[in-house]
Amino acid sequence: MVVVLAAMQEVSSILNPLLLAAFLAIASATPLNWMQRQGVPAPLAVLVLFLIIGMFFFLIFLALRGAVETMAAQAPQYQAHIGALFGELREYLVGLGVPPEALPDTLPLPAVGTFADAAATIAGGLTQFTAATFLVLLAFMFLLLEESTLPGKFNAAFPRSRRTRVRMRRFMQAVDRYIFIKSATSLGTGVVVGIGLFVIGVDFPVLWGILAGLLNFVPTVGSFIAAVPAVLVALVGGGWVEAIMAVALYVAVNVTVGSILEPRLMGRSLGLSPLVVLISLLVWGWVFGPVGMLLSIPLTMIAKLALEAQPATRWVAVMLSDRAD
């Protein structure tokens, strides 16, 4: 296993686009099957999903690029506000009895040009992201075209083993259901967070909504990571009231989605142990980088579903679960 993972790490630049394309194809399998049941020809259904996903990536690119450029332009205002907040905090601590000489007079902040350089670097990375997106979408389209032939391939590959075909079919259905529900709840999380932050008045609500939706795939840790930059921007751009409202929004959304909605839709049996979540982040992050960290939980969940499909390996799936049954 170590050798295989190390080999995958060496070719991660090739596997990452294919991994993203496979994830998108699995998430799109449910709407693809629905359109085909409604009488839409398979090539047309694939084309519709291809255009929808392509437009989604294009809008994400525009939102990220606009947020980075605006953030660099507003860097002087943010620095001034941070200095004012630090001054208020210093006065408050002195009022509590802290010796003034024990506190710094000013907060050391990077120069404004540092923010501009960082923005230029991020913008260049987004351009490379756009080029890689084309490969992802191309592989996504071919994987969708391949999806309709899977039942026939299962029958041809296992002509005398009906039990194996049933297990493979159940495994694929479980994976499709998990990825589709997780993608739908993540999309809902991003939309609600983006709209909520827009109403509160936090800068770059679209950016924070995208981040919240993507990191919803990482339980517990992801929601915290997504909330920190948005709350800091709310504090710097608005004030304490906006920051507290942003924290309340994130807590309400993540409790509703993570503790109520997802368990009810998926079932508690699809949970992972917190230790397994941490190990998954470390292992898949080491193998595939940021893409691996983003998809670490779906990848581990697919492995857990595959282990559950075989009686001989079900005990491993039980050890990965967050329950003892």
From TrEMBL:
Record family assignment: Belongs to the autoinducer-2 exporter (AI-2E) (TC 2.A.86) family.
Transmembrane segments: 14-32, 44-64, 118-145, 178-200, 206-236, 273-295
Main subcellular localisation: membrane
Protein's UniProt keywords contain Transmembrane helix: yes
Protein name: Transport protein
Membrane disposition: Multi-pass membrane protein
Name of a matching Pfam family: AI-2E_transport
Keywords: Membrane, Transmembrane, Transmembrane helix
GO biological process annotation, one example: transmembrane transport
Upper taxonomic lineage: Bacteria, Pseudomonadati, Pseudomonadota, Gammaproteobacteria, Chromatiales
Signal peptide: none
Subcellular location field: Membrane
UniProt GO cellular component terms: membrane
